[in-house]
UniProtKB/TrEMBL annotation:
Lineage, opening ranks: Eukaryota, Fungi, Fungi incertae sedis, Mucoromycota, Mucoromycotina
Protein name per its UniProtKB record: protein-serine/threonine phosphatase
Keyword Hydrolase: yes
One Pfam family here: PP2C
Protein origin, superkingdom: Eukaryota
Organism: Phycomyces blakesleeanus (strain ATCC 8743b / DSM 1359 / FGSC 10004 / NBRC 33097 / NRRL 1555)
Length: 358
């Protein structure tokens, strides 16, 4: 655990916005940590591509890699040739690896020791949602009232992650890479990216998993958040929390702030709730924002809050990596299916429930 303050900083930096297809709110809070190392992106609609882009970067060892990723990933992604040609999965992968390349080449970041997670949600103008992830920040979709994980936590103890780490010359001790880093994938962290190996074979890699999902009328909202939230509440509990407050006619902005307040440790001695926290809530509109709020309020008016305030952190009870290293999906016409790809590119179709992390 990082260093903490004697009292938490509970001021919240919040924003909200939207377009014809989505409305969103985002909120960030430093909490008990001595500095704020999170960063995030909120683009409701890019003027050139009509795409929506949301992302959370959870920094460690400093804030510089997270801030750099926030500033540079949108251009790396949206202006890439792969994106312009409609190769969105490839564009996302290139943008993650491109952050590492750009950091290495920037003289202002020579010997920069920090790293960060990255969970990125891209909604194309064709209404296809892509979630790209490296690390343990998380994306969870509420569809038909259910919590569906669209990302997987990359932990050193995952079988495929351990295999890559050891093959690259590293080791896993105390559930950490080389006994130090609790993540097996991240942007930055160049201490673990030495040698002549390809980026995807490094001890710690920025190479992301990518999941693709075609939006449909059952999809209600998406939650992106750092592990400061997910360590305190499970996926279904967070979705249930949002539903409860939508039933009480709270705004997305208020719900983000309430969620962080619920997860914040009440005392310095608590194990959970000590971290920086960032939450983004994205609502998918079929009609107007006002109508979306009305529908959610009616649907969830009787929803109760989760009983547990600080449940034990749940890490990958059912991991995509137990199926295969790289997770993607195709547009196969069945919005309730996701296709995962193994190392050789052979597709394996599974129900969405099978990729849920909790």
């Amino acid at each position: 655990m990082g260093q903490t303050l004697s009292e938490p900083i509970t001021e919240k930096e919040s924003e909200e916005g939207g377009s014809q297809r989505v409305i969103y709110a985002a909120s960030a809070m430093q909490g008990w940590r001595i500095s704020m190392e999170d960063a995030h992106i909120t683009i409701a609609e890019d003027g050139d591509t009509q795409a929506s882009l949301f992302a959370v970067f959870d920094g460690h060892g400093g804030e510089k890699t997270a801030k750099y990723s926030k500033d540079h990933l949108p251009n790396l992604l949206l202006k890439s040739e792969a994106f312009k040609q409609g190769h969105f999965r490839e564009a996302l992968k290139q943008s993650f690896l491109g952050i590492d390349e750009a950091l290495r080449e920037d003289p202002l970041y020579v010997n920069e020791p920090s790293g960060c997670t990255a969970v990125v949600a891209l909604l194309t103008k064709q209404n296809i949602l892509f979630v790209s992830n490296a690390g343990d920040s998380r994306a969870v979709l509420c569809t038909g009232g259910r919590a569906i994980a669209l990302s997987q936590d990359h932990k050193p103890t995952n079988k495929k992650e351990t295999e890559r780490i050891e093959k690259a010359g590293g080791f896993v001790r105390l559930a950490r890479v080389n006994g130090k880093l609790a993540l097996s994938r991240a942007l930055g962290d160049f201490e673990y990216k030495m040698g002549n190996l390809p980026p995807e074979q490094q001890i710690v890699t920025a190479f992301p998993d990518v999941v693709e999902h075609t939006l449909n009328e059952k999809d209600e909202f998406l939650i992106l958040a750092c592990d400061g939230i997910w360590d305190c509440m499970t996926n279904p509990e967070v979705v249930n929390f949002v539903q409860h407050h939508l039933g009480n006619k709270e705004s997305l902005k208020n719900i983000c702030e309430l969620l962080m307040g619920k997860c914040l440790a009440k005392t310095k001695g608590q194990v959970l709730g000590q971290d920086n926290m960032t939450v983004i809530l994205v609502a998918f509109l079929n009609e107007t924002p006002e109508r979306w709020y009305e529908l959610m309020a009616e649907k969830y008016k009787d929803t109760k809050l989760p009983e547990a305030s600080y449940p034990t952190a749940t890490l990958n009870k059912r991991s995509i990596h137990e199926k295969n290293v790289s997770s993607e999906s195709n547009n196969n016409g069945d919005s309730n299916k996701v296709v995962l790809y193994n190392d050789g590119g052979t597709p394996q179709e599974v129900d969405n429930e099978d990729i849920s992390l909790n």
